[in-house]
């Protein structure tokens, strides 16, 4: 059984052309294990430049969102086919900022996952509980509620081509990381949930942790048996720090 190891940088609405070229210069020349996949997710305007800037075979480009619709009168939106035409390989979907700031529901997220797969993109599906939900021991119920509409929309077999990012909302951008043990416990729950539907798919499903991951804590988090990489926000904007993460993680 081989599971992919993925280190993804979610730039959110940050960065510019000079960050892109500094990051590319650094990562193209860093000693990154050939067995890990690095994904750089800048804002839409930078996707095409990012594609030509990163020249290593194991660095791919991802978008941070896309429309669930194929085309038409959806001003300001970007379709899966458009991303595909720009050679984008991954797309982050259902990020907690999309859910809380833009009202994206579990069902809308599921529709986006379906549209992304139809275009041949690999969705990085984000799930995670709020602090109140964690405190009131609702974490597992919340994660199931976030996952089930996606399973209903695309079927379990589609999870051969999906990456999951578990991002506890209380850990995003706060500096409060889940401890490796706490993250592992939740990742193990997610894998068991999928194993009840299909053991083979569950065994291969890449489960990334996200939430204040940095160069210091990445090693212990990714050493956990059910943590297959990270989705990194703040620390992905610092060239030295992100390249340290990329070179620390082994596939
Ligand atoms: P953070 O963000 O690493 O800044 O906590 C992670 C994310 O939102 O994907």
Overview of the molecule:
This protein has 251 residues and is of the alpha/beta class. It has 11 helices and 8 strands. It has helices at residues 17-28, 47-53, 80-85, 96-101, 106-118, 131-135, 139-154, 180-195, 199-204, 218-222, 239-248, and strands spanning 5-10, 36-41, 59-63, 90-93, 122-127, 163-166, 207-210, 229-232. The protein has an 8-stranded parallel β-barrel, surrounded by 5 helices. Strand 2, helix 2 and strand 3 (59-63) form a beta-alpha-beta unit. Helix 1 runs parallel beside helix 11. The longest helix has 16 residues, at 139-154. 2-phosphoglycolic acid (PGA) binds at residues 10, 167, 172-173, 210-213, 231-235.
Structural descriptors:
eight-stranded parallel β-barrel; single chain; about 250 residues; alpha/beta; 11 helices; binds 2-phosphoglycolic acid
């Amino acid at each position: 059984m081989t599971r992919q190891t993925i280190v993804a940088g979610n730039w959110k609405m940050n960065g510019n052309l000079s960050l892109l070229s500094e990051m590319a210069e650094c990562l193209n020349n860093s000693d990154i294990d050939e067995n890990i996949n690095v994904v750089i997710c800048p804002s839409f305007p930078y996707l095409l430049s990012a594609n030509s800037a990163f020249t290593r075979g194991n660095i791919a480009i991802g978008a941070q969102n896309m429309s669930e619709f194929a085309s038409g009168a959806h001003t300001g939106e970007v379709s899966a086919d458009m991303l595909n035409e720009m050679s984008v390989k991954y797309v982050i979907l259902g990020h907690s900022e999309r859910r809380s700031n833009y009202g994206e529901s579990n069902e809308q997220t599921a529709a986006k996952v379906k549209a992304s797969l139809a275009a041949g993109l690999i969705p990085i599906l984000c799930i995670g509980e709020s602090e109140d939900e964690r405190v009131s021991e609702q974490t597992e119920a919340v994660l199931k509620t976030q996952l089930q509409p996606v399973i209903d929309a695309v079927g379990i077999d589609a999870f051969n081509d999906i990456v999951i990012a578990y991002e506890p909302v209380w850990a995003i951008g706060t500096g409060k990381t889940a401890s490796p043990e706490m993250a592992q416990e939740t990742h193990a729950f997610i894998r068991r949930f999928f194993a009840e539907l299909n053991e083979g798919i569950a065994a291969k499903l890449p489960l990334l942790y996200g939430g204040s991951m940095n160069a210091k804590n990445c090693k212990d988090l990714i050493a956990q048996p059910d943590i297959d990489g990270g989705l990194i926000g703040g620390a992905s904007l610092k060239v030295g720090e992100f390249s340290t993460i990329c070179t620390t993680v082994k596939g």
